[in-house]
Amino acid sequence: MTSELHAALAHGDRSASVLTKLKQYPYLLQLATIECANKAPSAANYTRNAKTNKRRRLVQNYMRVGIGRQLTLPNNPHARLVSFLQLLNHLGKAPWASGKFAANELILMRLTAAHMSLITWCDKPHPSLYDMLSIPHNQPPHPQQTENLIWITNRQQGKTTNIGKFIAALSLAAKPSAMLATVYSTKFDRAGELVTAAKRYHLWMQTEEGKHPKWPSVTLVRDNERGFMVAASATAQPSGVLARPKNPDTCRGDAPSAAFFDEIAFTSADFWFKFALPLFQIAGRRATCTTTPPPPKTFFDLFCKQVKRSNNEGDYFFGLINHSLACSQCIEANLATECCHRLHLVPPWKSMLSIANGLGKLMPKHRHAEFTQEVFGVMAGTGHAFLPESLLKAMLERERVSNWGLSCPTVWVGIDPPAHGKAAMGMSAFLVHRNSGQVVLIGAAAVDAEATEVHQIQMVVARWLHRVCDHPFVAEDSPIVPIVECNNNEILSKSIVSTIEQMRNQVYMPFVSQRFKRYISEGVGVWTSQETTLAALSVVYQALIDGRVSIASDVVVTNREELDPRAKRPPPQELIERFASELGQFGYNSRGKVTGKCSDDALDDLGMSFLIAMYWRVAVKQADRSVSD
């Protein structure tokens, strides 16, 4: 009922039936009274017709007898919300923001719902406050469930104008605070651009065109390139809006009431996980994340997928809204540029014909994914991944292998030692069925090797491999073929190989100059290059297509429990899912390099250990015909 009345008031309906119903919802009557007061009476208005004058007098009489008088008190949350909505409407008349777009207006209402406690100055807003917002109640989530918002949209959709408008209104309506709102972005200058966009509305309100009777003397107390402080009048307490750098160490002391993250998907994972997320331990602090679609498999892409799962379960601590110009069915069918089912999300300042026919024809085919991502706002699924997600999913869903049936199988062991700045080590062990060619994973390890010594790495490898040799599928005389990557640290690789050779007699070392001329270290292991990585991906891709990669019912796993008694051994299913996820990450990065590390914090060690073992198994069998599975 209240949403219908609010809509009627917004369209100027002042009929007697509407005004009678307003007795039940006096805070809506306040909105009608404010709007009537803002219209300067003229002779033409008073003589136009008797009914209009009667409705105006009726509203004035309601106010005179006290129905709405108490609502003008500054501590009334309904009056505060009415004033805020009126301010938003007024800022929407600024020359650069006068174009109305329903999708963006709904975002403003969602932001209002999320920041309700700041706008109304009350810790627990009454449910009736949310009924005043123009949000369809048949679209989840309910306005009262909204806490923090993630808005993913395409380029030139009005993000900066919309968010700047909201920040400008919030800084005048919320309880004054020296650090009311902070803005973060990919660069300090970019954060300053959003702050400037908000300040622009305040400067406009100081002009004759933008002046409003309720806010006649908006005053900028401080104004520089890092932020501003604004007050409703020269004597009022000001609120601060600050642009902040993206360095997590620099921002550690920030304690804003509201934080706005612009293009958050293109910041660093360290900034998001070390600084941004910990901010929201404080109840009532609100976050707004706006960005174009994140690159696939990056930290924010994975975070958004987790948010989607949480939203489907009714958890809206973060609510995700994706204004994609293509529907999910057309995206899955690879017809995003031809989709016509979401044209209502195209703003009036854009031309769909120019996007599809003009820009689409100029875009090269190999840039098609970037085109749909940036122009259509489509969140990419797999990006440039070599190994399709459907094949990896089929691998995980395949029935687990519980019986081997053959004696003395060869154990192929791939090890990617810790290197670079991300101190992690990946290990995988698998068997290959002689008759069917089925590859069965029996061991997987992703070891956090930070702050470890060589002898500790040797101990982890030895204990994990000892348990692999005790696997039910492995015989006492089963030979082991260690395939250890030598990139970046050949000395460590040699120590790992020496450990394996000392613990078992049946160890075969195929990497000698008599068999291989390139990409090996004599008697140690292999070197990974773009050529070998592509070849390894081809081998695994073919095996996945043939349905020849399976998981054993019993998989040997490990992490730091061999080094730290407080650590717990990870569940096998966790390592299996990580195994599939890392295999799905491999593709071309922005510089054209084949890698599984698609973002700064991504790890590919477990996936790489399997890839190199699969490729070099084929190479070893080709170089030495006596080697069998």
What proportion of the residues is helical, as a percent range? 25-40%
Distance between the termini: 73 Å
Helices, by number, come to: 22
Mean pLDDT: 81
The CATH class of the largest domain is: Alpha Beta
What does the radius of gyration come to? Answer: 32 Å
The total number of structural domains is 4
Q: How many β-strands, per DSSP?
A: 17
CATH superfamily of the largest domain: P-loop containing nucleotide triphosphate hydrolases
CATH topology of the largest domain: Rossmann fold
In CATH, the architecture of the largest domain is: 3-Layer(aba) Sandwich
- Stretches where pLDDT is under 50 for at least 5 consecutive residues are 34-52, 58-73, 353-357
The portion of residues forming beta strands comes to 5-15%
What is the overall silhouette? elongated
Main sheet properties: 8 strands, mixed
Strand order of the largest sheet: 3-4-5-2-6-7-1-8
Give the structural class. alpha/beta
Question: Can you tell me about this structure?
Answer:
By secondary structure, the chain is of the alpha/beta class. The protein folds into four domains: about 1-70, no CATH class; about 75-325, P-loop containing nucleotide triphosphate hydrolases (Rossmann fold, 3-Layer(aba) Sandwich); about 330-375, no CATH class; about 390-625, Nucleotidyltransferase, domain 5 (2-Layer Sandwich), CATH 3.30.420. About 40% of the residues lie in helices and about 15% in strands. It has helices at about 1-10, 15-20, 25-40, 45-50, 50-65, 75-90, 100-115, 115-120, 125-130, 160-175, 190-205, 270-275, 300-310, 330, 350-360, 370-375, 390-395, 455-470, 490-505, 530-545, 570-585, 605-625, and strands at about 150-155, 180-185, 220-225, 225-230, 240-245, 260, 285-290, 320-325, 410-415, 425-430, 440-450, 480-485, 520, 525, 550-560, 585-590, 595. The strands form four sheets. The protein has an eight-stranded mixed sheet with strand order 3-4-5-2-6-7-1-8.
